[in-house]
Amino acid sequence: MDRVNHFVIIPIIALIIAATGCSGEEDTEQEEENEVEDEPSEEEQDEENDATEQQQDPNEVLDELVADVNSPPENLDEILEQDPGPLSGQRMDDYEEEFLEVMEPLMEFEADEWEETEETYEKLWTLIHSWVATDFPDPDNIIQQIRQTQIGHPDFEDEGQFSFEDQFNAQIILDASGSMAEEIDGTSKMDIAKDSIASFVETLPEDAQIGLRVYGHEGDNTNEGREESCNSSELVYDIQEYEEDEFADELDDVEPTGWTPISYSLQEAEQDFEDYPGEENTNIIYLVSDGIETCDGDPVEAAEQLSSSEVEPFLNIIGFDIDPEGQEELRELAEMTEGTYTNAANEDELTQQLEQSEELSERWEDWLSGAEVDASRDWYSMKHSTIAGYRNDWTDLMRAQDYAARSDIARFLRDEEIISNEASQYIQSESSDLQSMKWDIADEIQDDLQDINEENYEEMVEDIEELQDEYVND
């Protein structure tokens, strides 16, 4: 009996185990199916992510966007100091893709999501202005051009003033500090300077001599390399007749490296000209720098020493993509030596400033051939061409900026229901007010430049009449 029960029980247990196993497998499969069904698809996940992004508070996003943005300018100094925005000088009709890319952070919101307050409107205006901000030309560059109409004419020599002599010698002192490796529109400042200098030296008078001195090209811009760099200022091309290949080789070898020893370089420049005293030579120095003295020297003292030396050079300083503090120091340097200072923010402006400097060599050639300065011609050209052209450039930039802010952005965002009509109206009103202020400033600048030009002309005429009385009428 026990044996029979044993044979019966074993199959029953086996059946129970098999049934349980199958049931477990079915449950597991069902759970896995349920898990698969519960997992969202990739498309559903994207929609969920988009929904999460849509939940961002637009006012918080706006706060982040304007955190490091300067407020719109309120005077001329602030206009000249502002950085150009990514849409500077552009209109949406021609640059739609660029406009949409810049506006993208706002495009995900709707008008009814914003806090309708004046504070919000002001932040939107500040942001939009930063997008369309424009690099306006400095009127001081025109003043320097007016001053150059008198430079070197033998009839207008005062004691200690620069004058033309028989031999024309020019030296370029080039900044090779580490900051010259920074890029403007994808090209290093050093490469831009090299191209502009190479073009400039080709325009010098045939009998002119040229020299090239570089500084900051050794050591590096770390504290460890500072001492070596601050002691590096080298005349890489002696003052001599221009040989294109030799000059180009020396210029090409210059690489931006270290610090900015301007004072030391001006001291060395005096030695470079020791064989060319000012009594017999026309000596002109072109200093191209993107920064101020960083080697504890006193460039003003060095420049004064150079100016009062037997070399008697004319110092023409060009600040290249330099901040307001640096501009002020280099401008002071030029004023203390009765030289000129101009500022260049990019390749076109640097080339333009060197071309304006070229006028000195052209005037030397005129003087050498016995030509007299036509004061009336200079006055007329300055008034109707240079000053009027400056005003036209200012007006074009001002209009483009205003149209971009009001029509291309504020109205577009309103029409797309990204911002409210009230916000759009506020932005347009602020842009219009800013344009009115710039109109007034442009009028004042034009009047001031015309007054300076008129005074300059009257001084020239007065000096001519005095010379006529002294040497002709008597």
Automatic annotation (TrEMBL):
UniProt biased composition (Acidic residues): 24-51
PROSITE patterns documented for this protein: PROKAR_LIPOPROTEIN, VWFA
UniProt-listed Gene3D superfamilies: von Willebrand factor, type A domain (3.40.50.410)
Pfam families in UniProt: VWA_2
InterPro entries, per the entry: VWF_A, vWFA_dom_sf
Region of interest (Disordered), ranges: 22-89
Signal sequence bounds: none
Residues annotated as domain VWFA: 169-364
Name of protein: VWA domain-containing protein
Species for this entry: Salicibibacter cibi
